[in-house]
Amino acid sequence: MLYLGTDHRGFQLKEDIKAFLKEKGIAFEDLGNYVYEPEDDYPDFGKLVAVKILADSENNRGILICGSGIGMAVVANRYKGVRAGTCLSAWMAEHGRQNDNINVLVLASDITDFGTAKHIIKTFLETKFRNEEKYKRRIMKIENL
């Protein structure tokens, strides 16, 4: 399953992404925020997505959105088994999936337009982990920290 979460700064981008995912027939669950709330806090929504990822970290994926993409990545990466990467381009999403097996894509709504976000998301969802020994070894080292 694909889980979405955002604070107020990413709210409009998340709503656009939901329409895109529906159009493409991609199943997702929106974990909030469900309304534009200028005083909400990104950790609340980052946590919700991270917990869902942990239920099946190899198959579940997440998309988190905040203004810079940094705060949501910090929150998500606090959870062992979640590998979140802030991606500003499709190349970063491809690299993150192939080499680091990221299971949460983090978008920076303040600098990522919807067209770019669609391309990044498409790449994130379609790219497979390389599953080579060196990449597995590196991920295991992270997991053992």
Specify the helix fraction band.
40-55%
CATH superfamily: Sugar-phosphate isomerase, RpiB/LacA/LacB
Biggest sheet strand line-up: 2-1-3-5-4
Sheet-strand content, in percent, reads 15-25%
CATH C-level label: Alpha Beta
Count up the domains.
Answer: 1
Shape: globular
Describe the sheet with the most strands.
5 strands, parallel
Radius of gyration equals: 14 Å
- Element pattern in H and E: EHEHEHEHEHH
Q: How far do the termini sit from each other?
A: 27 Å
Q: Provide the structure class.
A: alpha/beta
Question: What is the count of β-strands?
Answer: 5
The helix tally amounts to: 6
| CATH arch. level architecture | 3-Layer(aba) Sandwich
Average residue pLDDT: 97
Low-confidence stretches: none
**CATH fold-level assignment:** Ribose 5-phosphate Isomerase B, Chain: A
Task: Provide structural commentary.
- Strand 1 (2-6), helix 1 and strand 2 form a beta-alpha-beta unit.
- Helices cover 48% and strands 15% of the residues.
- It has one domain: Ribose 5-phosphate Isomerase B, Chain: A.
- The chain is α/β, with parallel strands linked by helices and 145 residues long.
- It has a five-stranded parallel beta sheet with strand order 2-1-3-5-4, sandwiched between helices.
- Helix 2 (42-54) packs across helix 3 (70-76) and helix 4 (90-100) runs parallel beside helix 5 (114-126).
